[in-house]
Amino acid sequence: MIHLPGRRPARAFRTVAVGVGTVLAANSTPTPLYVAYQERWGFSATTLTTVFAVYAAGVLAALLLIGGLSDRIGRRPVLQGSLCTLIVSYALFLAADDVTWLYCARAVQGLATGVFTGAAGAALADLHPRADHRTAGLVNSAAMPSGLAVGAVISGALARWGPAPLRSPYLVLAGVTLVVLAAIIAWVPETVAAPRLQWSQVLRLQPLRVPPETRREFLTASVGVSVAWAVGGLYLGLAGSLVKELLDGSDPFVTGLVILSMQGVAGAAQLTWALRRGAVADRVASALGCTALFLGVLAVAGALFTGSPPLFFAGSAVTGTGFGLAFMGSSRRITHAAPPARRGETLAAFFTVAYLAFSVPSVLAGLLSTRFGLVHTFYAFAAVTALLSAATVVRSLRPDAERVRSTPGRCRQLDRRR
After folding, report:
1. CA-to-CA distance for 84 and 74, rounded, in angstroms?
2. Which residues have a Cβ under 8 Å from the Cβ of 10 and sit 6 or more positions away?
3. What homologous superfamily does CATH list for 10-189+212-417?
4. Helix, strand or coil for residue 8?
5. What does the DSSP assignment read for 213-266?
6. Cα–Cα distance measured from residue 201 to residue 235, given in angstroms and rounded to the nearest whole number
7. Which 8-state DSSP code applies to residue 307?
8. Each residue of 286-308: pLDDT tens digit?
9. Domain ranges of the chain
C-alpha cells in the first residue's frame, strides 16, 4: 500500500530526479573509454559488446527478480542500497587491470541500475508535489538521456585532458554519488505505508507481473520503447568504434560529443514536448519519435557511407529527438496507467522490456561486425530499425483510433479524466 503524505516537498522529488540522472551518467561513463580499454588490453569488438551485454544482463536480472522490491520494503532502503552498490562498481573500475575486471564492474553496475530504476520511477510518481503522474513520468524519462549525455561528455573530457584518464571519471562519479546518497537519506521521505524491513522480504525473489488493468497500455508502450532503446543501446555500445571508423582515429571527447548529440537532444526534445498534455499527446509523441528514429538512423548510415562527420552528428541529433519522444510517450503512458500499490513492479517490467531492446541488438551488432565489418553491420541495423519504426508508428496510433471510433464517449471521458 502506498502512503501519500499530505505535503509533498519539491526538494524530495528533485533529489530523486537528480539521482536518476546520476545513475544513468554512471552507465555512460565507460562508453568514451572503451576504445582505450580495447587498445590497452587488446580485446576484440565482440568482447567489447559482451562487456556491454554483461551490464545489460545485470540490469535485467535485477529488474526480473527484485524489480518490485520497493513496493514491499519501501522506496528509501532500495534507493540507498542500490547507490551503495553503484559505488562498489566504481571501485572495481578503479582496480581494473584487464577485461575480467570490466566484466565484474559492469555486472555490478547493471544490478545497481536495475534496482534503482524501478524504485526511482515509482518514487517520482509518489513524490510529485501535485500528484501529477504524467509530469513525473516526463521527468523520469528526461533525466535518463540527460544523465547519459552528461556522463559521456564529462568522461570523455577527463579522459582527453584530465589526469589518470581511466580512473578520474570514476573518482568524480563517486563523489557525486555520495552527495546524492546523503541527500536521499536526509530529504526523501518514505511513501510506502509502514513497511517492515525484514531480510526474508529482501531475499524473497518475486518475478515481475503486469497488473491486468495495465496490460493494454503496457503492450503499446513496450513497442515504442523497444525501438528507441535498441538505437540507444547501439550508440552506447559502439559509439567509440563508430567515431574511430568515421574519423580514422579514436578520441574519447568526440565519442562523448556523439552521445551528447544523441542523448542530450533526446532530453531537450522531451522538455520541449512537456507542455502538451493528455493521452493523445503521448500517442503522438510516440509516433513522431519513431518517425524521427526512422530518418535519423538512415542519415547516420548515409554519413558512414559518404564519410561525412557533419551528417553523422546531424543524424545523431535527429535520432536523439526520436529516442526522446518515443521514450517519453511510452514512459508517461505506463506511469499514469500503473496502479499505485504495484507501480514499482509495473515500471520494473517496463524497463525490463527496454533493457532487452537495449542490449540484444548491440550484442548482435558486435558479433556481426567481426565478420562483416562495422559499417555494413550498421547498414543492416539501420534498415531493420527503419522498418520497425514505421510499423511502430502504425501501432502507436491505429489501436487507439479504433477504440475512439467504437466507444467515442468513453474515450472522451478518459481523456478528460487524465
Report:
1. 16
2. 129
3. MFS general substrate transporter like domains (1.20.1250.20)
4. coil
5. GGHHHHHHHHHHHHHHHHHHHHHHHHHHHHHHHHHTS--HHHHHHHHIIIIIHH
6. 37
7. T
8. 888 989 998 999 999 999 899 89
9. 10-189+212-417
